[in-house]
Write a structure and sequence with these properties.
The complex is a heterotrimer of chains A (about 240), B (about 220) and C (about 300). Chain A has one domain: MetI-like fold. Chain A is built from ten helices and no strands. Chain A is mainly α and about 240 residues long. Chain B is mostly helical. Helix content of chain B is about 80%, strand content about 0%. Chain B has eight helices and no strands. In chain C, about 40% of the residues lie in helices and about 25% in strands. Chain C starts with a helix and ends in a 13-residue tail after the last helix. The chains are: A mainly alpha (about 240), B mainly alpha (about 220), C alpha/beta (about 300). Chains A and B meet through helix 2, helix 3, helix 8 and helix 10 of A and helix 2, helix 3, helix 6 and helix 8 of B.
């Protein structure tokens, strides 16, 4: 394999532009992080609510919550992204549709964030349900016996324990949010994947560009992992959940 | 608006969709079989305790699990011809990429499965004079495999969804076929909806199957 | 920079001439690869009308596909092969150059602009089409010029020279558009069609082809001044003198024999699949000139002095 390495080209200015390829890479990283974190917040909030509802005594709510999970879990993220980008605006009234398509600020970013957030929410909901159901039935009954309402039992007894149990699977979902955000390039978000492809095309330095983007993704996933491990340590209930 | 939709493109698209779907299945099944075999070997290597072997397996698995599949697909597509000097179509490149990538994920599942088998069984294996590999092959793996079947299948559903990413290198899978037909007949919106529906039906049926399987296996155990 | 390509071309031509005279010499580069494998791979585009696009059965067809097939025939004859497998690999504007460089495709039969920065990475066949970069709009928008696009979303396809052109226009004329990027020409056109963009900046032949094959061709128009004149050519690997010589000789023969005019007639002046629309796009003076004097000069040579 004869390949001419050249790392300094990152400092070259892109054609007809004031920015260097390195500037592009940094702004790509910015979008990737912005999408992954915003989508994760959406996923965590919605996923917790939906996951909790799936264990609720109300049949209708539980069914609706199950339908939500099955819908968002069984269609590939890329296809969901296309549905939100190409199909959803066509279902809106004309004025609103035009606003969404033309004037909404950072429209590609919001589309990608919502798509990824809802996709991930189904996975979070599944973990939350599993976490709640893994608790001994006695805990919930104890809460109710103490005179808590259903809502209070969830708030003070069930959920705090369930969340602690599911931190490890949530950690991989958080890392997945970063990895899955890579599909956003397909609707024109200038994220890490997009800029790395653009740099490959304009500079011709395939390996360096892909390697730089890959390392940055790796770093993101690694940091996400460390943050969750830190949280896991901080909230550990002494003597209850066995440390690794 | 919905009144603008025209789903008459769907019957026309069926032959193309079918061809794309067949490739998606081929990719899924190849990566599943190859991935499980390779993944099991990686899991065994990681648990073997050999310093070089287990470190290599750990590094392989942890690296691939930390980077987006999309990046890995692009990597292999550009690198394979550069390394081997032989061109490779997008379809074949994807087959190799998915097998090697999914091995990392199946490996973690198999490792959990192996570790769930009581240590006494391993010791029993050693006691009757079997080697590490014999114990694993004859005693531990058959049980681990059965216990992990639902999880392995769940991973396969994710794998099937992930095959849609090959559109990034132009391989003709289900999504690509839908997209091409949509463009050809000026009905891209309808074709995106149709492809979503097909993915949903397949993945939903498979996940129902996994649920039933989980119950049956739970009873046996 | 501009003198570099001239030297490069001259050297290549000398080499090519040398090969023509001594064809018995040992095979190198792409020709050796094709001889060994019995296969040649064409990079094709899926919506580059009418140069390379998919017909109703999703097979690639077009003006450049025809020319590439002629080149493949010439390769087969030159290597005295009994059979030659012609593979096709879909490429996009973003990955066509890396895929040519790394050997995935041997000939890129799409709609690639020959410019001097690309010549540092790849080589080109003689120019077979000359395009004007313009913009497509919906007639109802009333837009006729680039200066009306300030603050509005404008679509283009990632990885094309139009991206750089828009950047340059933004800087030079102080017009601030909101760029939206389609990953292929059909995608960018979809953005115009669904009002995600008010204009789509691209090669005029591509725009006309996309419009002709759209749902309501009457709704759109190609308007405005030509933003850039660009030579379009088939792309091949660099530093591959034998193959370069063969490709150039084949294309020049097509031009001399007048066969290229027939191909032009077939794709630009007659009804074409899939809808049987006639683009009715007469040959430009720039292209007539390129056919009379076959060359692989880059875009920079077309800038009016």
């Amino acid at each position: 394999m004869n390949y001419q390495w050249n790392w300094s080209f990152f400092l070259d200015t892109a054609m007809s532009s004031d920015e260097t390829y390195l500037d592009w890479l940094i702004s790509g990283l910015g979008w990737t992080v912005a999408i992954a974190i915003s989508a994760w917040i959406i996923a965590l909030v919605l996923g917790s609510i939906i996951g909790t509802l799936r264990t609720a005594p109300n049949k209708l709510l539980a069914t609706l919550a199950n339908a939500w999970v099955e819908t968002f879990r069984n269609v590939p993220i890329l296809v969901q992204l296309f549905l939100w980008f190409f199909v959803f605006p066509e279902l809106l009234p004309r004025e609103l549709s035009l606003w969404v398509k033309q004037d909404m600020p950072a429209k590609e970013f919001f589309t990608a964030t919502i798509a990824l957030g809802l996709f991930t929410s189904a996975r979070v909901a599944e973990q939350v349900r599993a976490g709640i159901q893994s608790l001994p039935r006695g805990q919930r009954n104890a809460g109710l016996a103490l005179g808590f309402t259903q809502a209070q039992t969830y708030r003070f007894v069930v959920l705090p324990m369930a969340f602690r149990i599911i931190i490890p699977p949530l950690t991989s979902e958080f890392m997945n949010a970063f990895k899955n955000s890579a599909v956003a390039f397909a609707i024109g978000v200038m994220d890490l994947t997009f800029v790395s492809r653009q740099i490959v095309e304009e500079s011709g330095h395939v390996i360096e560009s892909l390697l730089a983007a890959t390392l940055l993704y790796f770093l993101c996933a690694f940091l996400a992992n460390r943050i969750m491990v830190f949280i896991e340590r901080r909230v550990r209930v002494p003597g209850f959940i066995i440390a690794k | 608006m919905l009144s603008n939709f025209d789903f008459s493109v769907i019957p026309v698209s069926l032959p193309f969709i079918w061809e794309g779907l067949l490739y998606s299945f081929k990719l899924t099944i190849t990566a599943m079989c190859g991935g499980i075999i390779l993944g099991t070997l990686l899991a065994l290597a990681r648990l073997s305790g050999g310093p070089v072997l287990s470190r290599f397996a750990a590094a392989y698995v942890d690296t691939l699990r930390s980077i987006p599949l999309l990046m890995v697909i692009l990597w292999f597509f550009f690198l394979i011809p550069l390394v081997t000097g032989k061109p490779m179509g997008a379809e074949n490149s994807a087959l190799i990429t998915f097998t090697l990538f999914e091995a990392a994920f199946y490996s973690e599942i198999m490792r959990a499965g192996i570790q769930s088998i009581p240590k006494g069984q391993v010791n029993a294996g050693y006691a009757v004079g079997m080697t590490y590999w014999q114990t694993m092959g004859n005693v531990v793996l058959p049980q681990a495999f059965r216990n992990m079947l639902p999880v392995l299948l769940t991973q396969t559903i994710i794998l099937f969804q992930d095959t849609s990413l090959v559109y990034a290198i132009g391989a003709k899978d289900l999504l690509k076929a839908a997209e091409n037909t949509g463009k050809n007949y000026n009905r891209p919106v309808e074709m995106y909806v149709f492809s979503a529906l097909i993915y949903f039906i397949i993945c939903f049926s498979l996940s129902m199957l996994v649920k039933r399987l989980q119950k049956r296996i739970a009873i046996i155990r | 920079m501009s003198s570099n390509w001239k030297i490069g071309c001259a050297a290549a031509l000398v080499l090519a001439a040398g090969i023509q005279s001594a064809s018995a010499q040992e095979l190198t580069g792409t020709l050796k690869k094709v001889k060994d494998s019995g296969a040649i791979t064409l990079g094709i585009r899926e919506s580059s009308f009418p140069l390379s696009y998919l017909d109703a059965s999703q097979k690639p067809i077009g003006y450049h596909i025809d020319i590439c097939n002629k080149i493949a025939d010439a390769v087969k004859t030159r290597l005295a092969l009994k059979a030659l497998t012609v593979n096709q690999q879909p490429v996009t504007s973003q990955n066509r150059i890396p895929l040519t460089v790394n050997g995935t495709i041997d000939l890129e039969c799409g709609s690639t602009t020959n410019d001097s920065s690309r010549q540092q990475q790849v080589s080109f066949a003689p120019t077979t089409y000359v395009t004007n970069v313009k913009m497509a709009v919906k007639k109802s928008s009333g837009i006729t010029s680039l200066s009306q696009l300030g603050g509005k979303p404008v679509a283009t396809t990632t990885g094309t020279t139009s991206v750089q052109l828009m950047r340059a226009n933004e800087k030079g004329k102080g017009v601030d558009f909101k760029e939206v990027y389609g990953k292929d020409h059909a995608d960018s056109f979809l953005m115009l069609e669904t009002d995600r963009a008010v204009a789509f900046v691209m090669d005029d032949n591509l725009l006309l082809g996309l419009i002709a094959n759209s749902k309501n061709p009457a709704e759109y128009a190609v308007v405005g001044e030509s933003l850039s004149v660009e030579p379009i050519a088939i792309m091949l690997r660099k530093d591959d003198p034998q193959f370069y010589g063969l490709v150039h000789a084949t294309v020049k023969d097509l031009m001399k024999s007048g066969e290229i005019d027939k191909l032009y007639q077939k794709w630009f002046l007659s009804p074409i699949p899939p809808k049987g629309v006639n683009l009715a796009f007469p040959m430009s003076d720039a292209l007539k000139n390129a056919i009379a004097n076959p060359n692989d000069n880059p875009k920079e040579a077309y800038v009016k002095k």
